[in-house]
Amino acid sequence: xxxDPGRGGATVEEIRRTTGNDAVRVFVADLSSQQxxxxxxxxxxxxxPALHVLVNNAGVVNLRRTTTVDGIETVLAVNHxxxxxxxxxxxxGLAASGRARVVNVASDAHRFVRTLELDDLGWARRRWxxxxxxxxxKLANILFTYELARRLDGRDVTANCLHPGAVATGLGTNNxxxxxxxxxxxxxxxxxxxxxxxxxxxxxxxxxxxxVSGAYFADxxxxxxxxxxxxxELARRLxxxxxxxxxLAP
Length: 250
Prior knowledge:
By secondary structure, the chain is α/β, with parallel strands linked by helices. The chain has helices spanning 5-19, 34-47, 74-96, 130-151, 177-186, 193-196, 198-205, 232-246, and strands at 53-56, 100-105, 157-163, 216-218, 221-222. The chain has one domain (51-246): Rossmann fold. The chain is 44% helix and 9% strand. The chain has a 5-stranded mixed β-sheet with strand order 1-2-3-4-5, sandwiched between helices.
């Protein structure tokens, strides 16, 4: 799934060419739009009634506060609510596969904040600090993963999250020329996209993590997250707030 059909199509062709597998499809959706996410979920379930793996890996960093078509702050909408809504809409398809995995790409940037302010998730009343906003969205990813794992306990669907490292993917280059120059200067110190994807692929495919759920990984190994991420009450409340924001029952 991608936002840019040109780049998505090129990726599909590359996968077909390098693997010899023609059974590869691209789905196009803008994950800042809840309607687009709902349409995407419908398309996916129509094409694949049983889903084995869902890797949520969408992210944005903004230097200024913006809102989506739904009136929600963009970083929150894309980095957290898109994961939450798409996963919940696809849960029955995942359960239908008999054994499935949800993998949420988070980040050690979640340590940039001590907790979440649930009454101001969109940073409308606080000073905008780009990396704190991003860090809060990554903490939300982890809290969501842990809560999802608890709610899936007893079902054959696992949920884990991960830190991919600093990866040269172009994240943040939407913020203008200075941001693009900075990203270019830092590129030699970042991981390649292939290296950055390694832990996601490990969680999606490795027999070593079969049955493992509710964990955080870095470099394909279990790791601890911040104290706030283990606050079960905060996770439950975030789940309920998120449900209200996307129009689902808790």
